[in-house]
Structures are given as C-alpha cells and as structure tokens.
Specification:
about 45 residues; mainly alpha
C-alpha cells in the first residue's frame, strides 16, 4: 500500500531517493535558479 502511494508522489521523491538529501538540495537549488532566470527573462522581454 505504501509503495503504491509513493509511486504517485512527485518526481522530487525519486530525486531524493537516488541522490540523497544533498543531491536533492542541489537539484532544488538548480531548479530555483532556472525559475528565477526564466522569470527575469519574461520581465525583461515583457
């Protein structure tokens, strides 16, 4: 039952499982940088 519920969770759980706490933090940090870059890009072009 728990396994099925875990399979439905976001990919962050998969990243956390394979990379560990540090790896997950790095991936999250990269995603934040990409999001900020995209936001600033939209603001500049807008």
């Amino acid at each position: 039952m728990s396994h099925d519920h875990h399979a439905e969770e976001p990919k962050r759980g998969i990243w956390y499982t394979y990379l560990g706490e540090t790896g997950a933090a790095v991936v999250a940090f990269i995603w934040i940088l990409l999001a900020l870059s995209w936001i600033f890009g939209v603001v500049n072009f807008g």
